[in-house]
């Protein structure tokens, strides 16, 4: 039985579906990095506001990362998500994927290709 709820975003008041909405028995928000606790930000956010909140929290974390701290970072110890998320893991520039620092931190090491956003 699906446990889908219609909720209002606590940030923008938009209605959205929250809960088990897929065959895999998980909510859409499970594709995002698990970087929030339930009590931290109040009630659920809509997909757009949730993505923006994730980007803001990741950007704040990235400001604390130096090459010395990159090898022992929180991102690589988080459970791996199946999907890459545009704006969080990468952006598209002239039709090419450009991986962001968060993506590199999750991987856990430098690939040696001189990536633009390499934190190592």
Please characterize this protein's 3D structure.
This protein has 120 residues and is α+β, with helices and mostly antiparallel strands. It has one domain. Helix content is 22%, strand content 13%. The strands form 2 sheets. Strands 1-2 form a two-stranded antiparallel ribbon. The chain has a two-stranded antiparallel sheet with strand order 3-4. The longest helix has 16 residues. The termini are far apart. The mean pLDDT is 85.
Annotate the secondary structure layout.
Layout: E1 5-8, E2 15-18, H1 47-62, H2 67-70, E3 90-93, E4 96-99, H3 101-107
Antiparallel strand pairs: 1-2, 3-4
Compact overview of the structure:
Pfam families: DUF5522. This is DUF5522 domain-containing protein. Helices cover 22% and strands 13% of the residues.
Summed up, the domain count is 1
**What's the helix count?**
3
Percent range of helical residues: 10-25%
- Output the structural class: alpha+beta
Task: Order the strands across the largest sheet as they lie in space.
Answer: 1-2
Sequence of secondary-structure elements:
EEHHEEH
Beta strand %? 5-15%
Please report the total strand number as a whole number.
4
Q: Please outline the major beta sheet.
A: 2 strands, antiparallel
* Overall 3D form: elongated
Question: What is the arithmetic mean of pLDDT?
Answer: 85
Radius of gyration equals 16 Å
How far apart are the termini?
46 Å
- Uncertain residue ranges: none
Organism: Flavobacterium artemisiae
Protein name: DUF5522 domain-containing protein
Pfam families: DUF5522
InterPro entries: DUF5522
